[in-house]
């Protein structure tokens, strides 16, 4: 998406010259000839960058005063000062008040473009660094090779460039925000901001201020931009949107419809260009029936639905994810990494993971730090928490000293094979084909063996 640059100069020829130079390079532009129109344009919609003349004839404020006002309201917008009567003192004052650079008139077009590109790049890097500080330690890719997660990645690749709104559903910890960030990163807005509003943690009375911002200007309260305004040119994520109060839901419907809104305490409408994504761990149709979610908002958000599979639906991904999380935890803690034993992997694959990928990541970090033993010793199933161990296949808890020694050889072998195959079926979610591949049997032979051992179709699930 093209960057928008606000040009502020009292000379029409200069405005036209700069506008032409920037337009030829693909930038969008707006112009202002006075302090009042400049601040009004800045407040109506935040530009990506401002080119600001130091001296403005007929205005109550000079360029330095306008610079201070803009920086007080939105420090992240870079401002390049220009002047035909520049002095070292003026340039120093501009830089001290937050200007990115200072250019003397007349200037060469190439020099202006170089400074504009550098200012925009510096702004982008600062924004990315801020996002990384906020989201440190969180994934920005969906990992796994299962058919389920491959289908999600394929959907993201298709919908990301379109600009359509996407409603991402799934259980807590299933990777909904990661999917939203992937959509943004693969969209035409990738150079714009990605702003997330967590509806589940925000107090009900704060929603509208966080969304729309605060006009300020009375009792010492300054203007505060909301997430809709901060996401201009980029993507806004409404995380767990079902927790948004009904009253706020009604107000955001109009903002989504015409991309305009009013700040709290203000009467001027602010126009933005924002792509809105939303996530939910609830059934929004049921929430609509219960009167807790507006139907008109639902249909504005669900242009493209995207469902994140639960981790228990893609058990094939668990070994790789667990190993990756162990490596990351080791790097973060400064510890040597450890391997998982086959019985531990089987136990992890048998567990249902109500907390999904987030729960697996936290568990791997805890096990690495808390479990004793050499880094050369693999992590065994009995080292895992009881909540995971209790769901481990029966084979992993098989007590040979009390059971098998009292049985004839054939019965002991049948008991072992029964528990072994039940464990593998559980590990692979009841999938006969994957189980047969892992244990080294033909699919038809495995069917016969299961029938011979009395393992019913209910026990082994779908093939």
Automatic annotation (TrEMBL):
Q: CDD domains in the record, alphabetically? A: AAA (cd00009), REC_NtrX-like (cd17550)
Annotated GO biological processes are: phosphorelay signal transduction system; regulation of DNA-templated transcription
**Sigma-54 factor interaction domain mapped to chain residues:** 142-369
Cite the GO molecular-function annotations of the record: ATP binding; sequence-specific DNA binding
Q: Pinpoint the Response regulatory domain residues.
A: 4-120
The modified positions for 4-aspartylphosphate read 53
**Pfam families, per the entry:** AAA_lid_14, HTH_8, Response_reg, Sigma54_activat
Q: Which InterPro entries match?
A: AAA+_ATPase, AAA_lid_NorR, CheY-like_superfamily, Homeodomain-like_sf, HTH_Fis, P-loop_NTPase, Sig_transdc_resp-reg_receiver, Sigma_54_int
- Keywords from the named record: Activator, ATP-binding, DNA-binding, Nucleotide-binding, Phosphoprotein, Transcription, Transcription regulation, Two-component regulatory system
Q: Supply the PANTHER family for this chain.
A: TRANSCRIPTIONAL REGULATOR (NTRC FAMILY), TRANSCRIPTIONAL REGULATORY PROTEIN
Please report the name of this protein according to its UniProt entry: Sigma-54-dependent Fis family transcriptional regulator
- What is the originating organism of this protein? Acetobacter ascendens
